[in-house]
Amino acid sequence: WGITMDREWDLEIPIPTDAARLNDGEWHHLAFTFTALERQVRHYVDGRLQPLPDKGGFLPLMGQLTSLLLGRDVHGGQELSGLLDEVRLSSVVRYTQDFTPPGSLSLNWGPQPPARGRPDGPPLLFGPDAPAGPVALGSRKHLFIDDALIARMTDVRLTVNTPADKTPTDFRSNQAWEPTPRFGAGQPDVASLWDEGDEVRLLYTNGGMWGGKPHAVGLATSRDGLHWTKPDLGLFPWNGSTKNNIVLRNASQGTAFKDPNPDVRPEHLYKYVAWCMKRGFYVFTSPDGVHWRRNETVALPFDPDGSISVFWDDQAGLYRGYFRAVMDDTIRRRVVRARTDEVLKPWPIETQEAPIWDANWALPRPTSGELPLIDTGGQVYRFKGIKYPWAPDVYLAFPWRFIHAGNVRPGSFLMVSRDGENWRRYEPPYYFTPGWELEGREVVEALMEQGMVRRGDEIWQYGTVRFTEHGGALYGGGEREGGIYDRLVRLTQRLDGFVSLDAGDEVGTVVTRPLVFEGQRLELNLAARGEVRVALLAEAGRPIPGFALDECDPITADSTRHTVSWGGQTDVEAQAGRVVQVQLQLRDAKVFALQFAAEE
Predict the structure, then answer these.
(1) Cα separation, 133 vs 515, whole angstroms
(2) Residues 6+ apart with CB under 8 A from 231
(3) Which of 73, 97, 149, 203 is the most exposed place for a label (fewest CB within 10 A)?
């Protein structure tokens, strides 16, 4: 054995070993240590110390480690005649005398690996693999984010509903470890929010990879979603003091979430899946969302120069991720999707013989060759995909549109999916729009952040507003206002209210596909300034007696759970289990969702 280092010099240390034992065709445990004070390298075979090599020191080196070769020398020669199964690097000397070799040090390949993902939600109703025939709707809520359940409609359109309220929060960059003004108060690109029940949590980075500061990831909390606290956690020092809210010191951007996977281990309850600059994508885990540990292996071996959106998909039983990809050497901002049912192992990709490399990065750029491409209708900067928690069969994304001319990300539009793989785009309008004034300044960039929080019949989302183009003049945009004015804004959306069936002054009609339901009553999420009526149709399309349009009590309500009645009666249980269609008649009204529900 030997250790060889190479830069402008060669340093080689021959290490005696038990060659006969290593050539017996069996697996063996090998260990190498270096004790700096002794200037001594030690080598162990199956826990037994081998003859000591000559002493030798290593010069103090400064720089970035960009590669480590195991099985060959630094010139790519002297190939190892054998196999390497598991490698561990440590910053401390773990062995100072003979020892009993440990078992596998791997979480994933040890005796009790984490369970593979499995579906814990209902089967998907729609998409290319959906079963033929009547839709087995049962008692699940159906959101009208698209026409998946619609057989026909007349004088009705699908309409994107922008958030009803945009309230600036008090979250600002005001600590020494936080971003420079280029990134502003709202932490564009990096905010990830989740609900802890009694509080909202926000994980954010200081943009140190570009902002000229050492890297840091911080945690903030809020009771009302508007006023934020940065707790003193005492975990990592900054300028000699641990009185700060830093939870990680990695150069990273990604998605943090409380994992709803029912098989998740307590120590892995929280996950932060992140692009780590020049290192690829990694998964960090935590038992409490505060104390984080990086997983043992890279998740995806790419350097896309940007964040990733990740969530647990209960209906598919796997984790989904979406991140930036390139189409060729010039188009850098498309989106690919990845998925895995073993989130702590390397995620599956299609390896390429000639990946796209960029001289500025240590790893290849991802392309549509390695992973499937999502049609975003042009370049986007972040995808911001999520599985909607309060109804099945609903996947939402809020991508940031990127306009290369002027280097601006003007707004975030809406995309919807029924399976997390096939997406429909609504654009225009933007879901989160620019062009409005906040505190006397015109919003130039309106950027959705990751995460949703529910409070009653309201959904809180968050976005960053900026008053200048991306990066300002230094990066090809216009410097209208300094980045110090950027703000984190709380957006309020109606429960299930992202898309609706809309009719104007003309009466519109919608008829669903044939379906089979369970339950005793029909509830609608709707806003009717005019009127809505509902009928139940038999399989042949004829109104079922007692449930015709002219027998329906007119609905003139604005409610997230309005029970439909016919002549004062709400019970539909006699039609449960039969094939029916639902007919909606709308005038000056919106219908967001329907659900056949059980009596409470």
Answers:
(1) 8
(2) 219, 221, 245
(3) 97
Cα distances (angstroms) measured from residue 326 to each of 305, 306, 334, 383, 412: 11, 12, 6, 14, 20
Return d(Cα 147, Cα 153) in angstroms, integer.
9
Instruction: Tell me the backbone φ, ψ of residue 255, rounded to 5 degrees.
Output: -115, 125
Residues 108, 342 contacting (CB under 8 angstroms): yes
Q: In this prediction, what percent of the chain has a pLDDT beyond 90?
A: 68
- Fill in the DSSP letter of residue 20: H
> Which secondary structure element, helix H or strand E, spans residue 152, and what is its range?
strand 150-154
H helix intervals, 393-449: none
Q: What is the DSSP letter of 226?
A: S
pLDDT(293) > 60: yes
d(CA 363, CA 357): 7
Amino acid code (one letter) for 308: I
On the question of pLDDT at 482 being above 60, the answer is yes
Could you read off the pLDDT of 9-36 as tens digits, one per residue? 556 678 888 888 888 989 999 999 988 8
pLDDT digit string (tens) for 377-389? Answer: 999 999 999 999 9
Looking only at Cα atoms, what is the longest distance across the chain?
A: 97
pTM: predicted TM-score of the whole model, two decimal places: 0.90
Residue from 323, 420, 407 nearest 365 by CA:
323
- CA distance linking residue 107 with residue 283, whole number of Å: 13
Q: Identify residue 16 by its one-letter amino acid code.
A: P
Q: Minimum mean pLDDT among 1-5, 26-30, 300-304: which range?
A: 1-5
Lowest mean pLDDT among 145-159, 286-300, 477-491, 544-558: 477-491
| Token pair recorded at residue 265 | 């281990």
How far apart CA 388 and CA 146 sit, in angstroms, is 14
Among the listed residues 543, 499, 412, 443, the one whose alpha carbon sits nearest the alpha carbon of residue 168: 443
If we measure between CA atoms, which residue out of 303, 202, 180, 320 comes closest to residue 252?
A: 303
How many H-runs (helices) and E-runs (strands) does the chain carry?
2, 39
- Measured distance CA(163)–CA(492) in Å, rounded: 5
C-alpha dihedral sign at 400, 425, 281, 320: positive
Which residue from 52, 49, 51, 50 is spatially nearest to 38, judged by alpha carbons? 52
Q: Which two tokens stand for residue 408?
A: 């601006």
Within 8 A by CB and 6+ apart from 128, the residues are 419, 422
> What letter represents residue 9's amino acid?
W
Q: What band does 582 get if pLDDT is binned at 50, 70 and 90?
A: very high
Contact 499, 144 (CB under 8 A): yes
Q: Alpha carbon 191 to chain centroid distance?
A: 11
Chain CA centroid to CA 390, Å: 17
Joined tokens for residue 54: 């000559």
Q: 3-class DSSP state for residue 324?
A: strand
Distance between CA atoms of 481 and 489, rounded to whole angstroms? 18
Pairing between strand 246-248 and 217-222? antiparallel
Q: How far is CA 366 from CA 111, 203, 517, 530, in A?
A: 33, 25, 44, 50
User: Stretch 69-82: mean pLDDT, rounded?
Assistant: 77
Rounded CA separation 381/364 (Å): 18
Q: Give the confidence band of 57 by pLDDT, cuts at 50, 70, 90.
A: low
